[in-house]
DNA sequence: GGCAAAATGAAAACGGTTGTCAAAATCGAC
DNA sequence: GTCGATTTTGACAACCGTTTTCATTTTGCC
């Protein structure tokens, strides 16, 4: 179908970290791909809508995308420096969120949970500097 | 000190839901206050920096602020419809986040956790429509 | 009062994202 | 293959929340 969408998807699949639209666009262009920024935005949106990629917002309001390997519900442990990400499961957290919602009479309860830190690699390069 | 900052703070303290800068600005103006939008942004920023108010980002990228009553670390259960918010504690979640970080060699671990749902009141008005 | 420092706000700039719309690629008959 | 209809594309403009700028006003202090 859409080779451009596949190209965008491929970039994400080959990256361990969350990537922004402009980021993906820049890499595609430097890889020689003939694609416009608008199309990258549309592709990412479509992939996110279809549940093919995960999205989250950075502190400075940028949307970043990642092709996670786990199909089931999960969360992320993200390195603040290098952006490398580990998918993590938290059954206790899932239950806790549901319970908290129910306890206060809330329905259709969802949650956003992200964990940030400095990964081992970045810790080393920082302390050894 | 700053009477404008207090005015902004007061608006937040008198509201149970998270409010945006423009939102607070509109209310202050309609209350007859003589204040500029820039000052509202600055006041909210200062309050957030000083830990006087909590901030979170909505799905559409807007920063919203709330003067929480709890001084200690907590999270929020937010109604998707009316925005009314309950402060919730989750000791288990705190421990889980720390553990997950440590398990993967991450240091300086922080987390963002928010629970969303439809509050009891909004559920009623929805079903009875 | 007089003066330096801080606060204020109107307007412009910013930056990520979305809308527009005409051109290009793709599809589906014939 | 041709030709028209449909979809996709992308340069550019518009959008919108937020930040910066900078001249003016207010505040704190003597
Ligand atoms: Zn790292
Ligand atoms: Zn979860
Ligand atoms: Zn509600
Ligand atoms: Zn917490």
From TrEMBL, chains A, B:
Q: Where does Fe cation bind?
A: 73, 94, 111
| GO biological-process terms attached to the record | negative regulation of DNA-templated transcription; regulation of secondary metabolite biosynthetic process
Tell me which cofactor or cofactors this protein depends on.
Answer: Zn(2+); Mn(2+); Fe(2+)
State the GO CC annotations.
cytosol
Q: Where in the cell is it found?
A: Cytoplasm
How is the cofactor bound, in the record's words? Binds 1 zinc ion per subunit.
One GO molecular-function entry: transcription cis-regulatory region binding
Keywords from UniProt, A to Z, are: Cytoplasm, DNA-binding, Iron, Metal-binding, Repressor, Transcription, Transcription regulation, Zinc
Name of one Pfam family that matches:
FUR
Q: Which InterPro entries does the annotation name?
A: FUR (IPR002481), Fur_C (IPR043135), WH-like_DNA-bd_sf (IPR036388), WH_DNA-bd_sf (IPR036390)
**Which PANTHER family does this entry report, sorted A to Z?**
FERRIC UPTAKE REGULATION PROTEIN (PTHR33202:SF2), ZINC UPTAKE REGULATION PROTEIN (PTHR33202)
**Protein's recorded name:** Fur family ferric uptake transcriptional regulator
């Amino acid at each position: 179908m859409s080779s451009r969408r596949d190209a965008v998807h491929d970039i994400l699949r080959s990256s361990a970290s969350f990537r922004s639209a402009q980021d993906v666009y820049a890499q595609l262009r430097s890889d020689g791909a003939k694609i416009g920024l608008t199309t990258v935005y549309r592709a990412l949106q479509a992939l996110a809508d279809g549940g093919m990629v995960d999205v989250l917002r950075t502190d400075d309001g940028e949307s970043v995308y990642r092709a996670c390997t786990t199909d089931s519900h999960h969360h992320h442990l993200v390195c603040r420096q290098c952006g490398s990400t580990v998918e993590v499961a938290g059954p206790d957290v899932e239950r806790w969120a549901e319970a908290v919602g129910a306890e206060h009479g809330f329905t259709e309860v969802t949650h956003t949970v992200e964990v940030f830190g400095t990964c081992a690699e970045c810790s080393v390069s920082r302390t050894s500097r």
